[in-house]
């Protein structure tokens, strides 16, 4: 992202954002509620438009619309706070759908891929259930498998554990840590310090739509530089 600015009416929600995430890098985006973290994530696959600046994925500028946008979007996997699984389809079908519809895979190929990914996130034994029959942690792992089924170049996670009961948070974070260790490029909005410490290469602190601080997790959590970061950490730790 370079020179990215966005407004919602009078609200200047993203201010001159310059951000490069390298292949294999894991970046944690952290900041107060309303600071623009979700909006920033959503601009990366153009769920939100920007007013100024440029966003490129793997060297390709984000197209405004059409097939080119759909293609680039399929390179960006997204996992949200709410799992957004298709309620009337089985877990397996949820994961098979993208590869079949967007990647043109045969049913057999899609099924093999989906089962392998469900295995990887530890819910293969739930494949034939409906999402509502799974726990929140299991559903979120299915959502991760579904995003991975598109073979994305980068994965965005927007507070993936904040809607979960405490005992389910770690199973989702562990899945994400494993993905990070495999070299997946990830942008993760989370306040989970454990995840940041284990998996993040960089922490970016956003406040009022601005990148205020950028450092290693160790540095950020033990020795924040700005008053805004100190104040924020004082509230969450
Ligand atoms: P965060 O994810 O850091 O909590 P958001 O990106 O969701 O922050 O929101 C940043 C600011 O933009 C907030 O003040 C929010 O109310 C506002 N906002 C978000 N989405 C919209 C929208 N679609 N229309 C108007 N304002 C919005
Ligand atoms: Mg948010």
UniProtKB/TrEMBL annotation:
Where's it found, cell-wise?
Cell membrane
Main location, first listed in the record: membrane
What is this enzyme's class at the first EC digit? translocase
Record's bilayer topology term = Peripheral membrane protein
The UniProt entry, under PANTHER family, shows: AMINO ACID IMPORT ATP-BINDING PROTEIN (PTHR43166), GLUTAMATE_ASPARTATE IMPORT ATP-BINDING PROTEIN GLTL (PTHR43166:SF9)
The signal peptide, as residue positions, is none
A Pfam family hit = ABC_tran
Query: Superkingdom, according to UniProt?
Result: Bacteria
What's a single GO CC term here? plasma membrane
Which source organism? Rothia santali
Which keywords appear in this protein's UniProt record, sorted alphabetically?
A: Amino-acid transport, ATP-binding, Cell membrane, Membrane, Nucleotide-binding, Transport
Q: Which InterPro entries match?
A: AAA+_ATPase, ABC_ATPase_HisP-typ, ABC_transporter-like_ATP-bd, ABC_transporter-like_CS, MetN_ABC_transporter-like, P-loop_NTPase
Catalytic reaction list? a polar amino acid(out) + ATP + H2O = a polar amino acid(in) + ADP + phosphate + H(+)
Q: Recall the GO molecular function terms of this protein's record.
A: ATP binding; ATP hydrolysis activity; ATPase-coupled polar amino acid-transporter activity
Q: What is this protein called?
A: ABC-type polar-amino-acid transporter
Q: Which residues form a coiled coil?
A: none
EC number(s): the record gives: 7.4.2.1
Residue ranges of domain ABC transporter in the record: 1-233
Membrane-spanning segments: none
The entry assigns this protein to a family as follows: Belongs to the ABC transporter superfamily.
